[in-house]
Design a protein that fits this description.
By secondary structure, the chain is of the alpha/beta class. Helices cover 43% and strands 18% of the residues. The chain is globular and about 65 Å long. Homodimer.
Length: 454
């Protein structure tokens, strides 16, 4: 890959003034050869394998930051879904495996490790059930372990038994981490149509079809896109907006491609994918909401927000796809409330509601993300929110997800404080009417028919 002096100067400007960064370099590691009936042996195998493969990850990332001047914010690890690995064990409690994953992450020096996960979109195995039951304590007793559960796919429909279970698991996780505003729920995602190569947390895991070890890159840059659109002014038409976002996404992705290939070479593992996602941070000017407002919306959440987000998401994909042949993960625009200063302002101004966020998830790259709700919300209501998001994903053949925090002891208008990239958020109101009978019907919502699209 050749890079001109002009591109280098432009990248320096993006880093210094517009919050350009590589959001994450994530090493995926297969644990399929770590199965054993004895859980202590499984833990020993996991620790040995993860620390051997990833021992130089943080150093290599740090060296690349210094050499190329581009910040790499997070260094992470993803592993094979633990429900698959631990099913060979003669125990029902998998928390011990979460603890050894946490120790791996701490000893290596990475920010998070993902893969305390299960794929239950078509039903449960014994290992799936044990893993789901272990999630609350696993997340409450570890700092860096992240968990995800896939409850639906377009091909199989929605496992409503899993959806109901996840409502209770989220409530219990919040209860066990109540002293930190339910932060355990910030490390737990419920998916529909989950990708198996996503480098972003909390949903990253190393899928069954992935190779032995791989490096995936998650790029960011809402501040860069925001600055580019501001320069256009109010007279630019939608074609000009789209072209500007595409060109900007192309440049951001080139930086990610360069870092990914260099990291792959130095670590001696295969280069995987670039996730072309615009991931906001709580920093001023690094907001998806601010991008949408720059397009002409008085406030994010106003009528027209969904159309603006659709344009943004599509243009990011088109521009990024021209810069790399290996697009993967979630790729698009994230809309987490607590991690986006503009979203927080929009919620405070009552311009952005949960219902509008749900509509936006029809066109964004993920779903309802980092949203705080009242602590007394019934588990069945949380399950119904998950079911709604899963339905959007299943019908539209896209990934959707729910990362929601029922903040213990908090009511509408209160605040939760997580700090760092997880940010802070106001507690949002919910529809007060019950969905209890609906979500308790049990069974599987059948997959949709796509030959009669309308």
């Amino acid at each position: 890959m050749t890079i001109s002096i002009g591109e280098i100067l432009e990248t320096i400007q993006m880093v210094q003034s517009e919050n350009l960064d590589i959001r994450t370099i994530t090493m995926g590691i297969s644990l399929r050869d770590c199965c054993h009936p004895d859980i202590d042996t499984v833990c020993e195998k996991i620790y040995k394998k993860v620390t051997e493969y990833a021992r130089n990850l943080v150093k290599v990332a740090g060296d690349l930051e210094k050499e190329y001047g581009i910040p790499i914010i997070n260094k992470r690890i993803s592993v094979t879904p633990i429900s698959v690995i631990a099913e060979s064990c003669n125990v029902k409690d998998y928390v011990k495996i979460a603890l050894i994953m946490d120790k791996c992450a701490e000893d290596i020096g990475v920010d998070f490790i993902g893969g305390f996960s299960a794929m239950v979109h078509k039903g449960f195995t014994r290992g799936d059930i044990h893993l789901l039951n272990s999630i609350p304590e696993a997340l409450a007793s570890t700092r860096r372990v992240c968990s995800s559960v896939n409850v639906a796919t377009t091909k199989s429909g929605i496992n409503m038994d899993a959806v109901l279970a996840m409502g209770n698991i989220i409530k219990e996780t919040a209860r066990l981490t109540a002293e930190q505003d339910g932060i355990g729920c910030a490390k737990l995602v419920v998916f529909a149509n989950v990708p198996e190569d996503n480098p972003f947390m909390a949903g990253a895991f190393h899928g069954i079809g992935e190779p032995e070890c791989v490096v995936n890159i998650g790029i960011s840059g809402p501040g860069v896109v925001h600055t580019a659109l501001k320069k256009l002014g109010k007279d630019a038409d939608f074609g000009e907006l789209s072209e500007t976002i595409k060109r900007t996404a192309f440049k951001i992705t080139r930086a990610g491609e360069l870092i990914g290939r260099m990291a792959s070479k130095r670590l001696g593992v295969r280069f995987g994918i670039i996730d072309l996602s615009l991931a906001p941070t709580p920093a001023i000017g690094d907001s998806i909401a601010n991008i949408l407002e720059t397009m002409g919306l008085e406030k994010c959440g106003a009528h027209g927000t969904t159309a603006a987000l659709a344009l943004l998401n599509d243009a990011v994909k088109k521009g990024g796809a021209m810069a790399t042949s290996y697009v993967g993960g979630l790729s698009g625009a994230f809309i987490p409330v607590s991690e986006d200063a503009g979203m927080i302002d929009a919620v405070k101004a009552k311009a952005l509601t949960l219902e509008k966020l749900e509509a936006m998830t029809c066109v964004c790259s993920v779903g309802l993300d980092m949203i705080a709700i009242p602590g007394d919300t019934p588990a069945e209501t949380i399950s119904a929110i998950i079911a709604d998001e899963a339905a959007i994903g299943v019908i539209n053949k896209k990934t959707t997800a729910v990362r929601i925090i029922p903040a213990p002891g908090k009511r509408e208008g209160d605040w939760v404080e997580f700090g760092g990239l997880l940010g802070r958020a106001p507690v949002m109101p919910l529809n007060p009417f019950s969905s209890c009978v609906f979500v308790k019907r049990g069974g599987q919502i059948p997959p949709p028919i796509h030959s009669l699209n309308n």
